[in-house]
Amino acid sequence: HSVEGAIIQPLVGSASDRLETRWGRRRPFMLIFLTLSALILLLTPALAYLPGGIRLGALVASIFLFTVLFNIGFDPYQALMPDITPEAQRGRVTGVWALFGNFAQAAILLLPLLALQLLGIHLSFANQFAIIAGLMVATTLLTCALVKEPARVGAVGKRKGFAVEIAHALHGLRTLRQAAKAMLVFAIAGAGIGAVVPNLSIFVKTITHCSDQQAMLMGFVLMISTVVGVLPFGWLTDRIGPKRVVFIAFGLIALAALCALKVTTLPQIVAIMIVAGLGNAAQAAAAYPLLTELVPAEEFGFYTGFQSTMLSLAQPVTVVVTGALINGGGGGYRVVFGVCALCVLAAMAVLTTVHKSAAPGEIAARNREQGREAGA
Questions:
Q1: For range 30-47, the mean pLDDT
Q2: How many CB atoms lie within 10 A of CB 58?
Q3: 318: nearest Cα among 303, 337, 345
Q4: Are the beta carbons of 258 and 337 closer than 8 angstroms?
C-alpha cells in the first residue's frame, strides 16, 4: 500500500461502485490498470541500461507508477469477491484467494532455483519480470472473461468531485459505526505489522550473524506457514465468524512478536516465523470478510479503497517512528517487535467493540441516506 493510495483508493473504489459499462463496474479497472502495471513491470529491467545520471530516477518513477496503477486495478478486483460470493462462503473463498497469492509469491522466490535445477537455465531478472508480467495479463484476462458481475445493488448517486466524495465518506462512517471501528482496527494492526516487515531480514542477521541467504529464508518460512494455514482459517471463518478468527490472528501475531524480543538463534526464529505465518493466514482469511459484513453491498468498492487508505497512512508513520527508536532508543532492531505487539494488542482491544449485530441497522440507515442522495 503506497502513500498515494491514501488519496486515490477511496475515489477508485467509489468510482467502481458507480461505473456503468457493458463490461460491468469492476472489470474495466482490472483490464486497463492491471494490464498497464504489467507493461511497466515488463519494461522496468530495461531501465538498468540507462545512463547513470537518470537511472535511479527512472527506477523510482517506474516503481511509483507501478504501485499507483496496480492498486487502482487491484481494489476493484478485491471488491469483486463479495459481489459474487455469499456472506456464508466468503471466508473459504478469501482463503483460496490468499492461498494462490501466497503460493505464487513463494513460487516466484523459487523460480530462478527451479529453472536452474530442473531445466539448467539461468533465469535473468529481465526474464523473471517478463514471466510475472505475462502471468498478470493472462490471469486478468481470464478473470474478466470468465467471471460475470452481478447487477448493481441499490442507488448510489452520481460522482460529485473529490471534496464531496471525502465528505460523503466521513458521513457514511458516522452512520456505519461498526465499519469505522473496524477501519481503526485495520489501521492499528497494519501499523504494527508494517513496522516489522521492512526490518525482518536485518533483524535476523543482526541477532544471529547468519548469511544473507539464511536471513531471506526466514521470510520464506513465514510465507510457507501462511500458505499452510490460510485454507483451514478460511473454513474456520465461515464456521465461527470472521471477528473471532481475526482475534485468533492478532493473538498469534502478538505472541510471535513478544517471543521475538527474546530469541537468539535461527531455530528459535523459525519457530516464531511459523507462529506469525499462521497469524498472517488467519488475518488474510478473515479481515476482509469482516469488513464486508459491516458495510452496504453497493459500497463494497468504496470501503475496500478506504481500508487501503488506513493502511497507507498508518504504515509510513510507524516506519519513521520505529526507525527513530532503532537509531536512538538503545533496543536495536528488537524494538520493532515491541511496537508490533503493542499495536496488535491495541487493535484487539478496539476489535472487542465491533458488534456484527448492530451492523444491519446501520446498513439500513446508510441505504436510506444513499437513496435520498440518489434522488437529489
A1: 93
A2: 15
A3: 337
A4: yes
